[in-house]
Amino acid sequence: MTLANAVVTAEQITAIAQDVWSSFLQLDLLPVENVPIEGSSVTGCVHVSGEWGGSIFLQCPAGHAQVAAEAMFAADPGSLAAEEISDALGELTNMIGGNIKSLLPAPSTLSIPSVATGDTYTVRVPGAVVIEHVALACGAGDLHISIWKV
Amino acid sequence: MLALVLDDSRAMRMILGRIMREAGFDVVEAGDGKEGLERVQTGPVPDVALVDWNMPVMNGLEFVTAVRSQPELRRMTLMMVTTESEHSQIVRALAAGAHEYVIKPFTADAIVDKLSLLGLVA
Q: Which partner from A75, A142, B93, B94 sits 20 to 30 angstroms from A39, CA to CA?
């Protein structure tokens, strides 16, 4: 889905995410239908400020985040603490957000990532609107990436 | 040979540490620039530091600038490993004293190739 005022295309976001997931997790992401992620999930976020202002969000089911973290830490299944899973998802958000930022108007700065985990939570960026949303999936589950512009 | 891996993500420190150990380095780690600076000032000076840019407390560019201001640390090779890929930021890091610049995501081969270019691995 590429919206009229988007500055980054869905194809570009998809290519960046596929590169990160294959490089670090050895998982192949493919585009899928945009279906809301239900149940426990993990959301990572970085903010961009400067010539362009907004936020980049990654959301995936908790199981997908766990598989991703286990790949990054080279850990046994089920052996990681929640803090380690958040750390890994935060770094994946940082990599995807940083590469998306390189396509946005410069100069701008990238925040340190923040991560939310749970069954029922809502993330809002006051005054921002979604300008792009991409739904992808691999064997570990779905991955949604959205770009919000202030 | 000793390498400092400087990144606020523990997962990234583990990945980079693994690559450096496989390349023959002993590895020490720090989670931000201030901790990294304290480590190189109080312990053995690493031969190379792999430096993230966006970190809390002291970022990677500040770390590079601080290291380059201290003559006793001058022999340490500095390689930025970061998601920051704007041309102006690469120029800033190199002007501050970084020797090489690797953009995340990277492959192990990309890191080793840079180390080879710097004469740190055969």
A: A75
Tens of pLDDT along B60-86? Answer: 999 999 999 999 999 999 999 999 988
Residue A3 in any domain: the answer is: no
Q: Inter-chain contact A72–B104, Cβ cutoff 8 Å?
A: no
Kindly determine whether residue A95 and residue B54, on different chains, have CB atoms separated by under 8 Å.
Answer: no
Tell which of A12, A24, A45, A66 to mutate to test the B interface (max B CBs under 10 Å).
A24
Record the pTM.
Answer: 0.94
Picking from A24, A61, A48, the residue whose alpha carbon sits closest to that of residue A101 is A48
- The answer to whether B109 contacts chain A (CB < 8 Å) is no
Domain count, chain A: 1
ipTM value for the complex: 0.92
Nearby residues of B85 by Cβ (< 8 Å), 6 or more positions away: A98, A99, A101, A102, B103
Separation between Cα atoms, residue B12 and residue A54, nearest integer Å = 25
